[in-house]
Write a structure and sequence with these properties.
This protein is mainly alpha-helical. Helices cover 75% and strands 3% of the residues. A hairpin with a 2-residue loop joins strand 1 (43-44) and strand 2 (47-48).
Length: 120
């Protein structure tokens, strides 16, 4: 193998999965037009929640460099997992709110943006 790592099955067939998903989406849109209307009902303003959720799920792992082979080890260490969740979902938003309240008190529209950016 000349010291090179071989791509996994998912990486080698990613294009096939992408084109299959696109074809399935177009077929569902054509055959079930009410499905598109139902999905469109999950909008907040001009943002489609299903598309936003799909993009987050698709882009987060490569951006965060998640190593899926390590997930089992992470979930076995309950203290580390609890600490990580507490820091990211309790302390982080509270800290952002506190900083926004301290420095942006006279600009509430900026406070809202600062607090939402941490949660989203």
């Amino acid at each position: 193998m000349n010291g090179r790592k071989r791509l996994g099955v998912l990486d080698r067939t990613l294009s096939v999965w992408v084109f299959t998903a696109m074809a399935l989406g177009m077929a569902l849109g054509r055959w079930l037009p009410r499905l598109a209307q139902g999905i469109a009902s999950f909008n907040i303003g001009t943002t489609s929640l299903p598309i936003a959720l799909g993009l987050i799920l698709m882009l987060y792992p490569p951006l965060a460099k998640i190593r899926y082979e390590e997930l089992a080890r992470v979930f076995r260490d309950g203290r580390l997992l609890a600490l990580s969740l507490a820091l990211n979902w309790i302390l982080g938003p509270f800290l952002m709110f506190s900083l926004a309240a301290a420095f942006l008190a006279e600009k509430p529209e900026y406070m809202l943006g600062a607090c939402r950016s941490r949660v989203a």
